[in-house]
Each structure stands twice: as structure tokens, then as C-alpha cells.
Design goal:
Low-confidence stretches: 269-273
Oligomer: single chain
CATH topology of the largest domain: Rossmann fold
Number of domains: 2
Largest sheet: 5 strands, parallel
Strand content: 5-15%
CATH architecture of the largest domain: 3-Layer(aba) Sandwich
Radius of gyration: 22 Å
CATH superfamily of the largest domain: P-loop containing nucleotide triphosphate hydrolases
Structural class: alpha/beta
Length: about 270
């Protein structure tokens, strides 16, 4: 709606995890390095957590895109609110083993084992990524994930497990020390600092086609203060600021535009209450 007004090719602050828009803060680079180390060196398992909206999902998409077409066979579980059996069925299905809803647990495990060894014989490694892992409700499902790591040869794991979730996932794992001990590679993503917030805004605007600065320094400072550096909140504020600036015929996004966006958001919240 406002793209033409600001001379943009597309909207820069959509909430979808588009890998083209990832901003590599030092923390995001460190997290990605650990993800690749876990997979490439067959370390078995990794835990990646972060506050809501800090970029875990987009990071996982970048990671997956790098693995696609290489020597890895992957399963990605985006909604892990599943029983232990349902989870195993979905993993087998995503790894190309077909849909087996009525098989016994023993038969499912045999199918899974066959997939792992078939992949090894084809020169492929098996990677399982559980996103939003804090949503797992049943401790038995966590235990099933731990047991999958028992598929090993003498000198190597046959599967790599990546658990990605919000901060509360760490609390859940305290109830499962046997699984937590397997997650030796562990990283937590924090919100962006102030300078990274400024660079993040500029980066996304540039990817969307901006040829000159549109957000002035006071506007970016206000975004940082209000968002506390959480990328998803930054996206929401900046998107609405571009819309507000367009509606008000502004030539630049300044602090006044941001204050109006924040005021409107507070009025809307109060109305909903």
C-alpha cells in the first residue's frame, strides 16, 4: 500500500521469516556458527533459545536453506504439540518413510532405524529440527526425543537433533536432566542492542529497495526504546510508521510519526480491554 510512496520494491518489515531479510548481529552469527558446527561435526544435539520475536525462526530458515540440496536429509517440526507416537510418525513421514498411523511403537522404531541406515548408506546425514519446542506439552514426548539420540554407532550419532524454543524451554528441560545433558551445545539469543537495532532497520529498508534514509535517528532511537531491541516488535513499529508517514504525507519518518504510532497502539489496546 505504501511501497510506491516510499519508492520501495516491497514491504520491508513483514513478520514472515524471510531469509533474505536476516540481519547478522554478532549473536546471530554466533548462533548460526554453532548450528553448523553441531550438524557438520555430528555432535548429536543442540539447544537454541531466545525471547519471543528475537529471530530464532528466521535463523532456522537460513540454516535449513544452507542444508537443502546437500548431504542432509531433514525433518522440521513446526508445531510439536504431539504425543510421543504422533511425533515419531511425523518424523518418519517427513524423512520419506511414508505415513504409518496404525503401526506399533516397535514397528515405528524399526522404520526409523531403517531410514537412518538407508541415509548413511547413501552418504546422507539425518537432521531433526523441532521449532517452538517449548510448546511440547507431554514429558513423554521430550523423552522420545532423548531416546532418538540413542541411535548411534560406536563412534558417531546417526541423527542430529536441534531444539529451538523460547526461554521457558529451559525451565522445561530442568525436569529432564537426562535430555539436557545431551544438549551440550547451547546458545541463547538476546534482543538487539541499540546500535544493532539501528543497523537492523537500515538493513531491512535497503533490502526492500530504499535508496536513501527514511527513518531519522530520533525515530530509530524511539523504536529501540519502545521495542527493547526485539526484532518482531521493531518490525511491527516500523511497518506502522511507514503507513502513518504515507497517510500523513511525510517526507521522512521522524520521532513524531513514531509517537503517533505508539499512541494509536495504546488506544487500540485500551479499546480491546
Amino acid at each position: 500500500m505504501y511501497e510506491k510512496y516510499w519508492n520501495l520494491k516491497e514491504k520491508p518489515f513483514e513478520l514472515t521469516p524471510d531469509p533474505r531479510y536476516i540481519y547478522y548481529s554478532k549473536a546471530h552469527e554466533d548462533a548460526l556458527t554453532r548450528l553448523f558446527y553441531t550438524v557438520n561435526d555430528l555432535k548429536g544435539a543442540m539447544l537454541l533459545t531466545g525471547l519471543y520475536g528475537c529471530g530464532k525462526t528466521i535463523l532456522s530458515r537460513v540454516f535449513l536453506n544452507e542444508l537443502i540440496g546437500s548431504k542432509y536429509e531433514m525433518a522440521l517440526i513446526n508445531n510439536p504439540r504431539l504425543t510421543a507416537n504422533e511425533l515419531l510418525i511425523e518424523i518418519i513421514y517427513q524423512l520419506g518413510g511414508g505415513l504409518h498411523k496404525n503401526e506399533s511403537k516397535g514397528e515405528l522404531l524399526r522404520l526409523f532405524n531403517d531410514i537412518l541406515f538407508t541415509n548413511i548408506n547413501r552418504g546422507k546425514e539425518t537432521v531433526l529440527i523441532i521449532d517452538e519446542a517449548q510448546a511440547i506439552q507431554d514429558l513423554e514426548t521430550f523423552e522420545e526425543l532423548r531416546l532418538l539420540l540413542n541411535f548411534q554407532q560406536n563412534d558417531r550419532f546417526l541423527i542430529t537433533l536441534i531444539l529451538i524454543g523460547q526461554s521457558e524451554l529451559r525451565k522445561r528441560l530442568k525436569e529432564l536432566p537426562q535430555l539436557k545433558q545431551r544438549l551440550m551445545i547451547d546458545y541463547h539469543l538476546n534482543p538487539l542492542d541499540e546500535q544493532d537495532c539501528y543497523h537492523y532497520i537500515e538493513h531491512r529498508m535497503r533490502i526492500a529497495g530504499a535508496q536513501q534514509p527514511i527513518f531519522d535517528i530520533n525515530a530509530k532511537r524511539t523504536v529501540y526504546r519502545y521495542s527493547s531491541g526485539v526484532p518482531r516488535v521493531i518490525n511491527g513499529l516500523c511497518d506502522m510508521a511507514l503507513l502513518e508517514g504515507y497517510a500523513s504525507n511525510k517526507e521522512i519518518i521522524d520521532e513524531g510519526v513514531l509517537q503517533q504510532v505508539i499512541k494509536n497502539a495504546q488506544i487500540e489496546s485500551a479499546w480491546k480491554v
